[in-house]
Amino acid sequence: MSTEIKNLKDLQNVEYSLEKLFSEAEDFLPLLGTDYVELYVGNAKQSALYYKTAFGFQSEAYAGLETGLKDRVSYVLKQDKIRLVLTTPLTSDSPINEHLRKHGDGVKVIALWVEDATKAFEETTKRGAKPFMEPTREEDENGHVIRSGIYTYGETVHIFVERKNYQGVFLPGYRKWESHYNPEPTGLKFIDHMVGNVDWNEMNTWCEFYKKVMGFAQIISFDDNDISTEYTALMSKVMSNGNGRIKFPINEPAEGKKKSQIEEYIDFYEGAGVQHIAVATNDIVATVSAMRDRGVEFLYVPETYYDDLRERVGDIEEDVEVLKQHGILIDRDDEGYLLQLFTKPVVDRPTMFFEIIQRKGAQSFGKGNFKALFESIEREQENRGTL
Ligand code: FE2
After folding, report:
1. Residue 4: per-residue pLDDT
2. Tens of pLDDT along 204-257?
3. Is there a contact between 107 and 156 (Cβ–Cβ < 8 Å)?
4. Residue 318: which of 297, 326, 157 has the closest Cα?
5. What is the Å distance from ligand 1's center to 273 Cα?
6. 157-162 and 106-113 as β-strands: parallel, antiparallel, unpaired?
7. 186 C-alpha to center of ligand 1: Å?
8. Cα(194) to centroid(ligand 1), Å
9. Residue 81: pLDDT above 50?
10. Model confidence, pTM
11. What is the largest CA-CA distance in the chain?
């Protein structure tokens, strides 16, 4: 009896210290959500039209020559909670050109919404983060914002945004962007997760970075046994912040008979970077069919994928025929199921793409779809001659 009580106490102690560890980890960098995602692109005006037309983003804010900027232009697009910023340099000596020359169009900034951007900067840099932007106060007639930033993998950065004292449309310096062209939204709600591709043997380094520097915890791990086809393989770990609002899976290539999609990405992006942005919808069929009608290209799986679907995922509310028609993938875990579909790369280099995801209880990432998905990507790689 006494041993049992002792064990129980020990167990409670362990639980207590784990909890303490976790709440400490949670506390030093509380994140309220994703604030915005900024892409450096070759022609922001035309990219903005693409994201409005094809994805249903709405015109939100603008900064450029007309607002006093001399060297760059930025368009801010919004759909529900998702904010995209598209930025293009206006002069040859802007450092943004260097980023574009090397990486092509891609994500530069994953901005995180915080209560205190100065503290976020101090806490992360003291734990080893490389500074990108010292805490900076920006203001206009609508109040003030404090932003700070640190580097993550590759040349990607996290900017911490403190906006509790700001009522303007986006950030100081931006004005409302009025447009007579306002295509309907497609039902995209918020960013579910954002995936980083890093180089060979770098996954653990960057997972450690998110653990140590940002207080994240690893929630899932996949190795090449989970994620491999006859030809290609990759490894992945999913890092999450304390409240689970921010999830960053990190991929690295693994040895396979042929070149994996991660290697292809690293080759064309010329380094580590954001591979995909997963956006949530409440009605994936409506979202995907609207996007497809507006010109977005999605990966396709062979019809045989649906043959054993019932055995694999059991009963689902959706009509399998409709899902099949749209090529939507389904996976189940202990908590429920999810529906997902991936676009082809949205830029000319085979680098960044989007995932559309609808969660029905499941909190996982579609492990059961990896094989079908990879085979689908391999067919695309084959076409590109990069397999
Ligand atoms: Fe994903």
Report:
1. 46
2. 999 999 999 999 999 988 877 777 777 778 889 999 999 999 999 999 988 887
3. yes
4. 326
5. 14
6. parallel
7. 19
8. 7
9. yes
10. 0.91
11. 78
Q: Are 237 and 222 in contact (CB under 8 A)?
A: yes
Q: What is the pLDDT of residue 5?
A: 44
Extract the runs of DSSP E, i.e. beta strands, from 21-169: 33-40, 58-63, 72-79, 82-89, 106-113, 131-140, 143-151, 157-162
Among 154, 152, 84, 144, smallest CA distance to 118 is for 144
All domains in the chain, ordered by first residue: 11-26+187-384 (3.10.180.10), 31-176 (3.10.180.10)
**What three-state secondary structure class fits 191?**
strand
Q: What are phi and psi of 209, to 5 degrees?
A: -55, -50
Q: How confident is the model at residue 174 (pLDDT cuts 50, 70, 90)?
A: very high
Residue 223 token pair: 């190795």
Gap between the Cα atoms of 145 and 136, Å rounded: 8
Q: 190: CA distance to ligand 1 center in Å?
A: 13
Q: Which candidate, 195, 166, 209, 168, places its Cα nearest to that of 62?
A: 168
